[in-house]
Fold this sequence. Notes:
Blueprint: H1 2-17, H2 27-48, H3 51-57, H4 62-88, H5 91-95, H6 99-124, H7 133-184, E1 192-196, E2 203-207, E3 211-217, E4 220-227, E5 230-236, H8 240-246, E6 253-257, E7 260-263, E8 269-271, E9 277-280, E10 288-290, H9 295-303
Antiparallel strand pairs: 1-2, 3-4, 3-7, 4-5, 6-7, 8-9, 9-10
Helix pairs in contact: 2-4, 4-6, 6-7
Amino acid sequence: xxLKLDLVLQQYIIPIINKPYPYLFYFKRNLGVxxxxxxxxxxxxxxxxxxxxxxxxxxxxxxxxxxxxxLSSFCSILFIxxxxxRLFFNPITRxxxxxxxxxxxxxxxxxxxxxxNNIMAYIIEKEHxxxxxxxxxxNASFYVVAVGSLPTFLIVWFNYTLILKQNLxxxxxxxxELQRRIDFTxxxxxxxxxxxxNNKTELIELDTDKFLFAKADGxxxxxxxxxxxxxxxKPYRIGIQTLENALDKFPFIICTHRSYVVNIKNxxxxxxxxxxxxxxxxxxxxxxPVSRNKFQVFKEAFLSEKV
Length: 307
């Protein structure tokens, strides 16, 4: 039985929860969701609570209780979706967001809403019963989580499926256009850019026509360029951000990842989808990643008439 359960976890559950998922918790969206849910909870309480029950149990009127329930939910949502990520989620965590992380965050949100509303209800009660107060809060909160977990997972998975289909369609169309441009674009004469490195005796003379990409490696970069023997890779003591700034006047040289700067004119092919997009260059085994938050920038730059 244990072996079967472990097999199910390894083959089905773990692959699902580790699937990439877009991080969608941004302020405007969070604020809109918090306002909508807060209003919805206020309305549910308004229709669900009997006025005589409210008058006998709470020190506030029915409209005040309902408003407070909505406000409590509103603040809870902003706390979990705004404050917690700002304190504990770095850019790497957001970039590598998954179905499992999305599910856990929403379940945590349900739990926190339940806890806050239980505390609010206890504060405005006319009579306090201290017996098993903590147990009452825990039971009520876990009940909300238990009831909400399955619908939450189904919604997350349904949304993931829709996003995946949309991304695959978008990337498929983009790849077709990309391949057409790769096939018919002729390289023009490149500019030679001289960039001072952190080593005073070292100067990069970068031919933009031959430049493929640069990869960050600590305080150094590995710079890949076309050469008479194929592809040359040379390390330089310079930060990737400094290199990007020195080449910012060339619209076809862009940052596709925090560790990569690429020349999109020299791309051979691409692979993956919008959540796992990779660039392939002639003569280079390594595939260059395009991070999720850079995919749209990469797409717009490549399809730009300036390229």
